[in-house]
Amino acid sequence: MRELRKLCDGAALLSIANQDALDLAAAFAEDPPEGLLDAVPGARTLLLLYDPELLDIEGLDLSRRGDRPPPRVIRLQACYDGADLDDVARELGMRREELVRRHVESEHVVSFLGFAPGFAYMTGGFHVPRLRTPRVRVPAGSLAVADGYTGIYPAETPGGWRLLGHVAARMFDPAATPPSLLRPGDRVLLEPVERLAEPPRAKRPKAQGEGVLRVVTPGAFTSVQGGPRYGLAASGVPAGGAMDLASLAAANRALGNDPFAPALEITLVGPELEALQDVRVARGTEVRSMKRGERLNTGLVQRGVRAYLAVEGGLAPAIPGEATRPLRAREVLRRGSRRPAQGPRAPRLPIRWGEPLIEVRAHRGPQWRFFASPEDFFDCEYRVSPSSDRRGLRLRGPAVALARRSDIPPEGTAPGAVQVPGDGMPIVLGPDRPVTGGYAKIATVVPVDFPLLAQARPGTAVRFVEERWT
């Protein structure tokens, strides 16, 4: 039975079989209804992201079917040298040689893509749980298993799957067409080898647009961020965008830019920049004219964690699917095409961020009843961990008690979803979040309140307040 459940304004989760989810997502990709931003297939669900001012999600036609490309056979060499190989073998009661043989001989068929750009959920894994605490960094190319699936990490990311080995093939190249090596329906044949060749370097397209600023010193972590860019979630590409969209919009409006034009997102300590031509910039709502050759030291973020420096006309965005990276010294920042960004309307600035204690409204999550006493979540106080980033804000405080395992069939993740791994420590997912995930989610933050978390410094106290649907 298909059930549609709203997670927050702009996100809803449809319970649906995997093949039906793929068909429906393909139909929406061919002819998207006005206001539908993305459709993310999962193991048993389809996540729908939309503009609530343009689309009545409950009136959406969910019976459509689209055409999908025929499946292929893809051969990959694999070196079985993973950090969890022996532990998984012990859990399953077999020798590592037997584990490798069984894994190679299993049928690996791509069910859907998600989690990260180019990450394919394939059949033929082992039924072992994810790690209780996800690793902060998993090497690119890692061959891993969890809950009956096999997956290959396309890039270095956090992750909780069990590592059996690695491959050299490039699973995702944002400059390629299509960018993902695998697609749903493909059958993957693994060939075990002792040593792998080095993967070919990805080709970067030639920079476009006129140079406007040069980076003298890059700051702590400064990146180019605009509004979220939708449409590639079915390939595992998050929409991304600024952590604090309201602050981005305020800086852009001060220059007459589109509210979601790409700008510099400054974290804690900003860069020093040199103007390559006469240009107007805005930090927050403060506008400044720079002459060619003039330098600007943006310095410390005075309030909160992030500030935004907009450039007249906007900056050139990153390639869709390219991982967020910090600026480098001597890098040239180029002006963008001035095309308006796609996505929901720019929110207003919140009035309470930067305080030592913040209250954040949230709805009950899709796995609310997976937890022993879920109501306690709204009575506890948490603190923002220093290990937080654009993928997720990790919280520290009372562990959320689970009534069952935290692992679920992988499903699309909404912006602001609060997932709880096996250690009970909540993680609020951000713009660069995994597109799909297999940890239970206890809540979803109200979108207009997310900037409060985006601007919360490490150690900030956080209380969640339940927001009920009217």
Short précis:
This protein is mainly beta.
How would you explain this protein's 3D organization?
With 470 residues, the protein is mainly β. It has four domains: 3-59, Gyrase A, domain 2 (2-Layer Sandwich); 75-192, Cyclophilin-like (Cyclophilin); 211-334, no CATH class; 357-466, Beta Barrel (Cyclophilin). It is 10% helix and 33% strand. It has five helices and 30 strands. It has helices at 18-30, 85-92, 96-105, 245-255, 450-454, and strands at 3-8, 11-15, 36-41, 45-50, 73-79, 108-113, 120-122, 135-138, 142-146, 149-152, 157-159, 162-167, 187-192, 211-217, 221-225, 263-267, 272-275, 279-283, 286-290, 295-297, 306-311, 332-334, 357-364, 381-384, 392-396, 407-412, 417-420, 427-429, 436-445, 461-466. A seven-stranded mixed sheet has the order 7-6-13-5-12-9-10, covered by helices on one side. Strands 23-29-27-28-25-24-30 form a seven-stranded mixed barrel. The chain is globular. The two termini are 25 Å apart. The model has no long low-confidence stretch (mean pLDDT 92).
